[in-house]
Amino acid sequence: MKKVSLKDIAQKAGVSTALVSYVLNGKEKETRVGETIARRIKEIAKELNYHPNHLAKSLRSGKTHTFGLIIADISNPFFANIARVVEDEAKKNGYTVIIGSCDENADKSWDLLNVLVNRQVDGFIIVSCENSENQIHYLKERNIPFVLLDRHFPDIQTDFVATNNYKASYDAGVHLIRGGYRNIGLIAYKSDMYHMVERIRGYKHALADSQIDFHANWLKEVKFETMEQDVKTAIDEIMSADQKVEALVFATYGLAINGLKYINELRLQVPSDLAIVSFGQAEVFDLYYCPITYMRQPLEMLGKTAVEFLLKKMKNPDEGMKQILMEAKLIARDSSMAKSAWPAG
User: Fold this and answer.
1) For site-directed labelling of 143, which of 19, 79, 117, 170 has its Cα 20 to 30 A away?
2) What is the mean pLDDT of residues 235-252?
């Protein structure tokens, strides 16, 4: 089947190839093409099923109108939803997004980055994983535009869009304390990543500000690779500690799902045996027999703002650095019900 060219459209419309090119590249206003003829050209292009040759276009302009999105874990609904927001927002601006998931693995992230650089994407939005600082330096040295999303490195000057993780975690702790809980545990990832460090710091400060002594065995840090088993061990240790925990904060959605499965196996009742607050929103939290309280991160705004920052950066590489922290909102449900509101009996 012969590929439809600009010449074919021009012949059918009875105009020059240059005129067709102006209209299909959205330049009819600049070149003062009449509305009627512009509409006619677009209709013929549609009728003939014309598809522009992006490769030829990108060779001419040096732009591919694509950017890479590297996320940490596509199985996490938070990242899957953010990917959708980024994709939709990019499409509105005439960009295609190539998405890759690094599964919290720096080597995999490096491979993805190289593939996408070789595909000559115009820029990157990256949810960084641990030990990937060298990748950020690599992009900076080559002046490849990028924006970090959800996670950033405080020691590297970059554009980023993230949640105020310290405040979110602090709010989760304060919410439980106000509900009458004193012995509060936290299950987090064992990680030097700034967002995780900030979640732990916020939790500890919430306890300190309420004059609650922090006990080291209330905080459990588990490995991403062995999460399922580590979460079970962490809950066993937390529940058998001398200062028995009565409420638990999960620092991520993945940790919460594994934790809730095991809490069910142990036949523990939420919230009477153990109150729960989690990070990350997901439909699953509504389906649990006791709807789960969670910290809702503004994923729509995070995704849209990351795209906006990247587009500005690509347009004007000398644009000043943009860094923004957004607030998470605590959505209180039955899993962290105040003790005073527990049903009698």
Assistant:
1) 79
2) 92
